């Protein structure tokens, strides 16, 4: 493939021996500025992708996408209603649950938590919950054995391990001032590495009904949908077919703000970093101005040999673009390497500094996730290259008109 003459000359200008040290310095600054902008943008977008992945895989794969609860308990005919709900388009599964608030105690340490009664067999088939429970304890989580699975944050606070017995205190039915004390054995630790770990525990559904003296009554029906972004509509559709007074809610009302924050930060970061790359690209203007002054004798000689204005413009468009592309390539390689290993690098930095950047009792996860999306990398590189070409074209068009006779005569 034949290389255009303008590109050959631009390559010689770029990588040949320079007479002007200032030109080299400004070129290096331009390359570093563009590279840093690309690096930061790739890392930032990868971190946002990681947060979104963890929200989907770690939170929404464990918690229900929607819930239906009776306005006036008890939940009459819920077994019949459950069959109708499962047939609603968009619903993958619907399962009963019992929710209640409890005070737990171990070695004179107390904590108020939310306990959820679930059907272990259904959760094993339809949820990824078992992946986050140590030693696959959900497989041996059976009714009538006084078992409880607690979050890791709660276990750390109470300093308990699997096999320990703790006391659960719940109000007596119809006697709110009297507490029922129930001894339960910890059969597993739920490790989601998120805020949920500090105030969440699960027990078998039938046991929860027994503790609360509910009989066959339940707190509500939890729903998994095939499109999490349409959860509100699907849950409302399911609520309508119950033909009773129910209240509906979805993950959007509890964790939706996290998703919207991630998208907003992604957009702001992209715009901000594009501005940073744009400002770095403006250094190309200085580089081209100095380059034209440095190469004016060469340009004058080219003109005396009959070089047209278009050739001169194209030479310096290539010259500026080559500088930009050099910075973009360095930035892309470094950004991809850091983005792929971002979680490991941040963990090592935390160990060195002795400081934890994300605490799971404040944020919804306790580590900095990352997920490199090659489409994001493509968008970043395309935008940076277009900015470089645009600025190079505009600058070269306005600074390359040189009078050969004046230059060669020394006037």
From TrEMBL:
InterPro entries: ABC3_permease_C, Lipoprotein-release_system, LolCE_TM, LolE_gammaproteobact, MacB_PCD. Residues 27-227 form the MacB-like periplasmic core domain. It is a multi-pass membrane protein. The keyword Transmembrane helix applies. Keywords: Cell membrane, Lipoprotein, Membrane, Transmembrane, Transmembrane helix, Transport. One of its GO terms (cellular component) is plasma membrane protein complex. Its main location: membrane. Pfam families: FtsX, MacB_PCD. Belongs to the ABC-4 integral membrane protein family. LolC/E subfamily. This is Lipoprotein-releasing system transmembrane protein LolE. It comes from Candidatus Gullanella endobia.
């Amino acid at each position: 493939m034949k290389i255009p003459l303008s590109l050959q000359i631009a390559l010689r200008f770029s990588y040949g021996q320079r007479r002007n040290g200032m030109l080299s310095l400004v070129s290096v600054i331009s390359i570093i500025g563009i590279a840093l902008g690309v690096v930061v943008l790739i890392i930032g977008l990868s971190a946002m992708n990681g947060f979104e992945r963890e929200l989907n895989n770690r939170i929404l794969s464990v918690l229900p996408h929607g819930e239906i609860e009776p306005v006036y308990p008890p939940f009459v005919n819920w077994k019949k209603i459950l069959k109708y709900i499962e047939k609603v388009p968009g619903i993958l599964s619907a399962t009963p649950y019992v929710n209640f608030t409890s005070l737990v105690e171990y070695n004179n340490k107390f904590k108020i938590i939310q306990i959820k009664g679930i059907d272990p067999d259904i959760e094993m088939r339809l949820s990824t919950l078992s992946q986050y429970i140590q030693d696959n304890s959900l497989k041996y989580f059976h009714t009538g054995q006084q078992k409880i699975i607690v979050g890791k944050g709660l276990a750390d606070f109470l300093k308990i391990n699997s096999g320990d017995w703790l006391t659960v205190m719940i109000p007596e039915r119809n006697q709110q001032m009297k507490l029922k004390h129930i001894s339960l054995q910890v059969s597993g630790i739920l490790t989601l590495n998120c805020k949920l770990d500090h105030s969440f525990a699960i027990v078998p559904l039938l046991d929860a009904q027994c503790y609360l003296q509910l009989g066959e009554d339940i707190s509500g029906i939890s729903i998994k949908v095939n499109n999490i972004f349409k959860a509100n509509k699907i849950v409302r559709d399911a609520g309508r077919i119950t033909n009773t007074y129910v209240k509906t809610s979805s993950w959007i009302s509890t964790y939706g703000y996290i998703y919207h924050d991630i998208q907003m930060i992604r957009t702001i970061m992209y715009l901000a970093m594009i501005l940073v790359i744009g400002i770095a690209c403006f250094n190309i203007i200085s580089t081209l101005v100095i380059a034209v002054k440095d190469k004016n004798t060469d340009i004058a000689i080219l003109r005396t040999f009959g070089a047209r204005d278009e050739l001169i413009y194209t030479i310096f468009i290539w010259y500026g673009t080559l500088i930009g592309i050099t910075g973009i390539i360095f930035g892309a390689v470094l950004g991809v390497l850091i983005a792929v290993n971002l979680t490991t690098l941040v963990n090592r930095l935390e160990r060195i500094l002795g400081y934890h950047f994300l605490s799971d009792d404040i944020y919804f996860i306790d580590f900095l996730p990352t997920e490199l999306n090659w489409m994001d990398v493509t968008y970043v590189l395309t935008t940076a290259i277009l900015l470089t070409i645009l600025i190079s074209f505009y600058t070269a068009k306005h600074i390359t008109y040189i009078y050969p006779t004046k230059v060669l005569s020394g006037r």
